[in-house]
Structure formats: structure tokens, C-alpha cells
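Our example copied in:
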Amino acid sequence: MSLFTKTSLETENSLLQSWQQSAYDYFAHMMTDRTAPYPCVPGVQGFLQDSLRFGFTGDPRSEQAAEQFADLLKDYGRISRETGPYASLVVFFDTRSFSSETTIDHYQSVFWSLIQRIHELDQAPWPEHVSPNPDDSSWEFCFDGEPYFIFCATPAHEKRKSRQFPHFLIALQPRWVFEDIHDGTAYGRKLKSAIRKRLEDYDSRPPHPSLKWYGQNDNLEWEQYFLADDENTPPKCPFMNRMNRIQR
């Protein structure tokens, strides 16, 4: 599997399948649409500065897609710090075989199953400074020793337009991206305010109550990875760390 830059996708697009080209074109329009600015300011800046990296995989329900995703993420972790301050990996999944009636709940199940499978493929130990327990405020998903924030968008989202995409999409931001973007810095507070304002304008409902800063005592990172169209959140994190399994 290959990692692509914005430049390579726009100059070597003959290498792409039609669904891949369509997915990238939609993403590019979403990032550059000035009539409806996308809420994630760092994501937009990363796209404009060619700091994002892109990948394509098959059906997210398949074992092959999990293996492809794991390979992409492992390759990305090795070069992410070289890509710029607003780094992210954006992965598009082939959902052409999904029914148009597929629900958000089903996509949510697909998401957590996929995250669990790539965790099982991870050969690196869980970082010692990150709790293995999703109910701890210091927890976040890690792969190959690198902590990531995860964002998922699906074709089934309607009210939360910021989480809507024609294909199943997962974006991952390395934790180091947020070192200067948090509630303890003036820049972080200003950026949070700008993102919240954009979210209110972009979506047809208020920002989800789970959207908080990493490390806050009342924040659970996993709740932000996959947001429902309403304000609901699963009662328990579906992710199970191998370390917790061993302890049990």
C-alpha cells in the first residue's frame, strides 16, 4: 500500500481507480470550500500546506483492509514528523458494496471492529505513558508506539455534516500535533473557539457534548472518535486492549 501527498494525487491521478479519484476530489472540495468552511482548522491548514498523507484500502469489513490499514499506519508513523505541524493520515475505504440503507450504528460497529483488528496486528508494545484503559482520561489509541486521535466519517451521517463523507473515512492525527494546541495555551483556546463556531455553522445540531480536550479529568478520548448524529454515546468503549485481556 502507498501513502500519497496532495501533490502526488493531483499530478498522478491516472493511477487511481474511479472511486478513489471521486473520494479524493470530494475531500479536496470539502477542505477548500469557502462558502462552507470546514470546521477543523488544523485539517484545512494541513491540506493546503500539503502536510496530510492519504491512503486507500478495500472494504473496511474485510481482513485485507485491516492489514492494509495497519501497513499504511505503520509507514505513516515513521514519516509523520517530517510532514509539517498539521500532520494527519487520511484513509479512504471502499464502501461500494455497502447498501445505501446502511445505518450509523452499523458503521459504528464496523469502525470499532476495524480499530480492534489493527490493534491485534500491532507488534509494538503499548506506550508506558498512555493508560491501556479507555475509561482513563490519559487513554488514546496507539499503534506502533505512537498515540493518535481518530476521526471517522461515514455516508450515513446527515445532521452532523462534519462527520459525513461519501465513503467510510478515517483520519488519524499524531498526539504530538496537539502539544501546543490545548486548553493551557492562548492559541489552543482561540483555536477551540474558532472550531466550535465553525461547527455550529456547519452542522445542523450543536457540537457533541463529548468534544473536550485530551487530558481533562472528565474527557474520554474514545467517545470523540465516532460521533452519532444525536447526542448519544455508547455506554462502554468497545475497544479492548490486549494488556487488559491478559490482566483478566
User: Anything to note?
Assistant: The two ends are 36 Å apart (CA to CA). The chain has one domain: 6-247.
